[in-house]
Amino acid sequence: MAKTNPGRFFEDYAVGQLIEHAVPRTVGAGERALYHALYPARHALYSSDAFAQASGLPGSPLDDLAAFHVVFGKTVPDVSLNAVANLGYAEGRWLKPVYAGDTLQSASEVIGLKQNSNGKTGVVYVRTRGSNQRGEVVMEYVRWVMVRKRDIDAPAPDTVVPELAKVIDPADLVIPEGLNFANYDFAAAGEDHRWGDYEIGETIDHVDGVTLEEAEHMMATRLWQNTAKVHFDATFRPDGQRLIYGGHIISLARALSFNGLANAQMIVGLNGGAHANPAFSGLTVKAWSEVLDKAETDVPGVGAIRLRLVATKGGEPFALRGDDGKYLPDVLLDLDYWALMPL
Amino acid sequence: MAKTNPGRFFEDYAVGQLIEHAVPRTVGAGERALYHALYPARHALYSSDAFAQASGLPGSPLDDLAAFHVVFGKTVPDVSLNAVANLGYAEGRWLKPVYAGDTLQSASEVIGLKQNSNGKTGVVYVRTRGSNQRGEVVMEYVRWVMVRKRDIDAPAPDTVVPELAKVIDPADLVIPEGLNFANYDFAAAGEDHRWGDYEIGETIDHVDGVTLEEAEHMMATRLWQNTAKVHFDATFRPDGQRLIYGGHIISLARALSFNGLANAQMIVGLNGGAHANPAFSGLTVKAWSEVLDKAETDVPGVGAIRLRLVATKGGEPFALRGDDGKYLPDVLLDLDYWALMPL
Amino acid sequence: MAKTNPGRFFEDYAVGQLIEHAVPRTVGAGERALYHALYPARHALYSSDAFAQASGLPGSPLDDLAAFHVVFGKTVPDVSLNAVANLGYAEGRWLKPVYAGDTLQSASEVIGLKQNSNGKTGVVYVRTRGSNQRGEVVMEYVRWVMVRKRDIDAPAPDTVVPELAKVIDPADLVIPEGLNFANYDFAAAGEDHRWGDYEIGETIDHVDGVTLEEAEHMMATRLWQNTAKVHFDATFRPDGQRLIYGGHIISLARALSFNGLANAQMIVGLNGGAHANPAFSGLTVKAWSEVLDKAETDVPGVGAIRLRLVATKGGEPFALRGDDGKYLPDVLLDLDYWALMPL
């Protein structure tokens, strides 16, 4: 029997199944610095312990998306090693900030299964939870992927498609304990615009661009212990290209969005997301945002803002879909998230 | 109104103006390791806590140039986003070592303005100070840049050109508190040559070379939160090349200078510097130094040495300028600094 | 007199000579994170403080191979700057784990010399010891290299060829103090296979591949302060290629071997190794292993497993040598080591 991990195939999943993912990971000062080296991240709360402390936190946490990537990376060997496509995200919430010294592990529950009509693949829905060394859940999200069957003749499971919220109710967003923006220093944060200055429907071109490099996306993806072969092995795809981990584009776009959204400090909810087109080394990524919604929170001074974040590899800002309703070929990412901003 | 930062134009500056730069930055073990991964840095005081402690410091500080890059990086969005050229440095002094856990921020005072005769651009002089979370100034320097006007018809300001020292008086150099070289271990430091072994006018070919990579200069420049588009976006320049941050070449040349100047441990003064020619990925950088001056300090056992550090992309060592007085095309950097060395 | 280090030539060595290598190095959270960014390392003991503590250690140590690279890197300026070839390793043992904050230094004793019949080169055998800031030896190994003579007419030294163990006696392996696998969590470690599940002669194809990048091997090699020009300077070799540090391939292959050997947690012995063919950027590295031997240890629950680890740049797994007895052209590395595994 081979000792290597062949990954799970569609017929290996059952609704209700709980998968505890391997290799817990302690994060620290090194991951934090690498995140700032790999992405043009400038949100002050993640750059400065002093700024984070003035905001009521014990120190600067690991970037929310870095926490997401670590939790996500652990699921790859069990969930997406034989995946054909990453189809969507929903109901993502950040529940506790992650600090240097924390050890993260992940577990996923299978919450839905649907065999495709071709009989060769199926869709697997999992709810993944990342927890720290104290057993506290630090984040959770639903992801669904299309997975190959090992045996085409294996019987189809009963179809279960979970009902997922299109958007997280702002009342369900978790504000980190102690967070307050009463002493918020807009000059230190980099921009004057507060929650009240953004209007629903407003769009922002983030202007800056970053050209993708093989060494950078591989270092990032490895740091999250994501093991998908297609990101690292140039002989894996017939075209000799290494497909860039979609999360690399998410982090890059979010970092670029600092320019215009410097005060959208913390990400607390992931409503949905699509990797519209594949990304490869050599492309230059730009980003734009659209304000989709706004909500007050029960913490004085802290507002929630719902943002669409789009990453592109060219074309004009604010162009998303063609007349056929499909993403334009230059669109790489369409992400829908909630962030916290000073009122 | 656009929410992104358009940068300041020439007419936005006034002599006496104080600009507090955004996004304080906590540095730590990650930045330290990345500095050693990105540059062949080997000076023992920055490599070993034990060596630093034997030299009277609490531990190994962040490399002096890394501290400079962090302080400098913060100024870019306010000072050089619309700069045409970085013209010079003067009166740079390191005043306090930076240790893991320190949070740095920067502020710049406009100390000079001079519109160019073409009416389209002008020179802005700023004195920048970097300070830590205790409000202590850790370094300061003067920089002048050529900046575009937004409106060519805007009136020219009164010309103020600051008088800047060509060379920092060695009496004004600040020796870090507690520093002493009484127990200096030359074997551990890597070379036997002490202050007395260097002669004014002596030149040293540092022999080693490093070929520049896109991923490396971008990671370094990002780590310092330098936001100049030209370093990251291959679509920004008509030739499709990413211009390498001049500070990357400074750090690379300084690290290469270990071979022959292993005991020039700490940089304490920046007398001047010119980025003679642009640097791009694929070039191989070598370095040479010339001893310009020597001075004693008021700390027993600690000498100051004034060095010219030249980085090249080819050609013979020690060739700097052509018959026309201009830098030779292979010269990338001409830096003039003071370092501390055991007597 | 040139102030730069010309390196030692064959006639500069004498049997019994002790060389204390320069530039002690403090390692920490940054080196740890970079190791995980540069290699797909997933062994749980090095990824998670919690897992390491459950195994009786104070926390997650620096990867064993990272410790080796730091100790090795220090020897390069004194041992292999003028080396023509790195010929072999023997009698390598890890004696103490290295933790964040430790400062490493290296010293080598010349234990053998043999001039080659061509009179132009000779073989130098050194036993290198790396020690921490408390003077404890953390690892030791023997290496032999072919070194050029400065002066072909220099007399040949008496030939001394040390007797080196082909394989370290398992009784001589040092189990880290406190290590125990009584509470070993196989699910967290990533695989079920324990010591008893591996058979001598068994071979494992590790399946995954990683394409080599210039920025990655240079960052790794620099981090270990290895100064060999050939790794960094594209103008050094006539073919314009940068030769990749053999240790980069060792770490990469070991990380790839997680898939099938996730429970071979700690490396404690290096029996031998050959860099069979040079590696360059752009190649895709895969790895396979063969179980060479197994042994019990005097720590209950901890078994030793002797593994051959082979890295390739193509070809079929398990092919090592041609009919002529020579390594096949696709073989990059043939390493023979002892690891610890739960019984």
Report a brief summary of the structure.
Chain A has 343 residues and is α+β, with helices and mostly antiparallel strands.
Can you walk through the features of this model?
The structure is a homotrimer of 343-residue chains. The model of chain A has no long low-confidence stretch (mean pLDDT 97). In chain A, strands 1, 2, 3, 4, 5, 6, 7, 8, 9, 10, 11 and 12 form a twelve-stranded antiparallel β-sheet that branches. Chain A contains eight helices and twelve strands. Chain A has 343 residues and is an alpha+beta fold. The longest helix of chain A is centred in the N-terminal third of the chain and has 16 residues, at 64-79. Chains in contact: A-B, A-C, B-C. The interface between A and C is large, with 40 and 45 residues.
Strands, helices and their partners?
The structure is a homotrimer of 343-residue chains.
Chain A: E1 18-20, E2 25-26, H1 29-38, H2 44-47, H3 49-54, H4 64-79, E3 83-94, E4 103-115, E5 121-131, E6 137-148, H5 186-189, E7 203-205, E8 210-211, H6 214-223, H7 246-256, H8 258-261, E9 266-275, E10 284-296, E11 302-312, E12 331-342
Antiparallel strand pairs in A: 1-4, 2-4, 3-6, 3-9, 4-5, 5-6, 7-10, 8-10, 9-12, 10-11, 11-12
